[in-house]
Amino acid sequence: MPRPDGTLPPNHPATRTLFAPMHSTTLPHRWNLQGNHLMGITRDRWRTLRRRPHHQVASAYWHRAAAMTLTSWISTPLSQWEAWRYDAAIAATDLPADPIFILGHWRSGTTWLHELLALDIEHLAYPNTYEVMSPTTFLLSEPGLSRWFANFLPRRRPMDNMRLSLQSPQEDEFEIALTTLQSYYLALSFPEAEHMYERYLTLADLSVEELQQWQTQFLWFLKKLTLKHGRPLVLKSPPHTARIRLLLQLFPKARFIHIHRHPYEVFRSMRRYYHTAGWLNCLQKPDLQTLDQAILRRYCLLYDAYFEQRSLIPSDQFYELAFTDLEQAPAAQIQAIYQHFQLPYADTFTARLQQTLQARQQYRKNQYAPLEANLCQQIFQQWHESFAAWDYSP
Description:
Layout: E1 19-20, H1 43-50, E2 57-58, H2 62-91, E3 100-103, H3 110-117, H4 129-133, H5 138-149, H6 173-180, H7 194-197, H8 208-229, E4 234-236, H9 244-250, E5 255-260, H10 263-275, H11 291-309, E6 318-322, H12 323-328, H13 330-341, H14 347-359, H15 373-382, H16 384-389
Parallel strand pairs: 1-2, 3-4, 3-5, 5-6
Helix pairs in contact: 2-5, 6-8, 10-11
């Protein structure tokens, strides 16, 4: 029988065969080792993950598992060294004051908004890609290993061609995935175990012990970021959209920015994600026949929780905008956010913002074919609350 944490005993028969045979000739990016979020995992976490039910690595991806095993042997002693050197200082660090949480479904503009706010280096800090991919070692290893780790990162995001680097603002959810193994993002690597991980989107069905573990590790990571940067944090992870109640319990004065986009555009962009970047994380072959229904289901999980909990946020701590507004007038929207939260607005931030917006003028969004009529109907029926809340036409 599995243990309470979902792992199997060392001598359980299911642990003797860690790799399942797989026969396929059409696996996009099969030999690409870039962009896999498990590269910074430690040896004990990697071993625990592989022993869970439905976590057999397909033979087509043995080389990826081997690469992760290798990097885990590098991360583990560095993690132990960092803990010896920095744990006392981290524990003595005060939690960040009134962080800003960016909420919104994947592919709704959360990344672009995060990158714009992250330009305010005078007043705000953010977790970068290296920090969330090497969460147990970054205080010690980032100066020396970031150049080597850059080889495992694509220069542009495959799903939208946006620039990506180890210094880019990144989702703190990746840190949770690597340290607690309590994240839906692990289903990107192990789609056969997706049913095990969907409950981590909202955290609503976790046991007291599981939730305590999640909170402890989340706060510890924010303390580490605060120790390093010393400024209030702006955090972006789409799963936080369904965790407003919990985040307010942890940070009663936290500020929340929610960005939304037309549901049809979100759906089409999510499809593209799974057919591009999604393949970079695979250790098992995903079932593409169930992809559309999975996108529909996860959106409902996220926004059912959001609509239930958003009224908990005091009005002066909440700001909501549409992706089209950010797209058409980004500088004006950023200024409106700062005015609403009464944040200091430096001239140097204005200059960086204008420079970034000017450089982005050459960027072109993806163009998509129209959705099938029956699928449009399903989206409208299942996501109708979003259509109504933001006055989107079906």
